Amino acid sequence: KKTVFIKESSWNSKEKTFLCGLTIEELNRRGGMNINKFLAYLALGNSATDEWIDFDIDKTIVVPDFENEVNGVVDYINDEFEIERKTMNVPITQTDGGGMMLPCVSNKNFMIRLPWVKGLLAVFDFRKFIVEKNGTSIIKDIYGQEHDVIKEDIQIIFTESQFKAHSYYDSWEQYKEYFKQYNCQAGKCNVEEDFIPNAKINYQMLQTLVDITPSEIQTLALKSNRKIENLTSTVKSMQEAFGVTDKSTKFKTYLQEAIYLYPEILNDPYTKETIKQIKKSMVNNFRAGKLLMDSKYSFVVPDWYAVCENWFLGIEKPQGLLGRNQVSCNLYPKITKLDCLRSPHLYKEHAIRENVVNNNTKKWFTTNAIYIGIDDLISKLLMLDVDGDKLLIVTDNTFIQIAERNMVDIVPLYYDMRKAHAVEITPDNIDIGLEAAYTGGNIGIYSNSVSKIWNNDVWINGSEDEKQQALDTVKYLCKINNEVIDYAKTLYKSKIPSSVNDLIHKYTNCKLPHFFMYAKDKLNE
Fold this sequence. Notes:
Layout: H1 8-18, H2 24-29, H3 35-42, E1 50-51, E2 60-63, E3 67-77, E4 83-93, E5 98-101, E6 110-114, E7 117-123, H4 126-132, E8 138-140, E9 146-148, E10 156-159, H5 172-181, E11 187-189, H6 203-207, H7 214-220, H8 222-229, H9 235-241, H10 254-261, H11 269-287, E12 295-302, H12 304-313, E13 326-329, E14 337-341, E15 351-355, H13 359-364, E16 370-372, H14 378-381, E17 390-394, H15 397-406, E18 413-414, H16 427-439, H17 443-454, H18 458-461, H19 464-485, H20 487-490, H21 498-508, H22 516-519
Parallel strand pairs: 2-10, 3-18, 5-7, 12-16, 13-15
Antiparallel strand pairs: 1-11, 3-4, 5-10, 6-7, 6-11, 8-9, 12-17, 13-16, 14-15, 14-17
Helix pairs in contact: 17-19, 19-21
């Protein structure tokens, strides 16, 4: 495994910069921390992040997250792996990992990194909201201190879920003083693009649609086939194959710039051979299920209007701008139905939603993100939070029609996930944490098992009882998979009953589907 270490003398000279005024001794005095969370947060400054040059820590506050309960139908899986379909109130932290910034800070959403602070900052003019709605500008931070966001010129509102070490400080003022005293830096990354290109779906999103007909496959593959057929038909299409388009203002390579300035270079033997390899790779990708589709990736953002109704208008149960099963995405102002997808996609996780774009939504939702309502279980269906997750938004009519019939009688899965425990930060505990992270389990095993089930002929030849058994087996594997993902933090895995293991063996005792040769690049094995 790969691990990054730092020289001890360098660490000693910069410990309070990395930890924003804290020390390991102080963390332990206050109860310690979950080891692998500690290591992950410590490594935030080592991620691919650019310094946020004009960041002003004095124009920020941290407030409690907005949480509510959404009543809906779920398949609840308990620790004994019993599945119960029931209507219940599902608690959802709507701002989990997300914060707000005024348009004067940025007109684009982006992810942020500060010592102990991470997540997504989304554009929302909360100052205009307060003035227009005659709301209060007073809000309490997570330490109970009142702030007047207008008088104090607050431009960024972080939420408690973004501030991972909030319990180790006495106040946000203390954090800010340490931040300045020890020359800490803020970073930003993954800034929302000006132009969001079309994206591809993947095999996971296709394989859960178990009743696609051959004619529908032909329709879904139409754009991909045309791309192959037209690859060398024009100079423009060959330039595009090298990543040279009309929208290119900067080129990553000298070859791209040369092809743009002197297209005749496409007749060179080297470029001809390169195009052959590009075509071969393209064909393999399409065979692996990475089909061209009317779709784009975009940040998922909560209905900040609803959140501000709660924070600044005092409405206990706000309505917001979006109702149940509604989203808003300015990328598709004239398209009313979207299929919202997220990777990894293991269960039937096609969130088909009404797209609401009107004058009111465009006034408050000003970016190209996809905004989700607070009275919706979409976050449980797609297992998302709003700390920088992106959704694949599909508008293809054929794909949506297929997804709609496959989502009949499908509801979100819901199970209780264990919380991580704090321990003393010591070399021995770090060693235990690293071992747990590296040996806790291989999630590829479970996702591959799910692929075997979705590609099992039970969906064609099986009885209704067998189909239900197979579907339940996927539900079990999703629970197991998520526990393995979180194992490094929680050190917890459910004990799998023998009856569940028998079902898993029954429906996965077969080869992986043919397309895996292309998806996993196994052609030469």
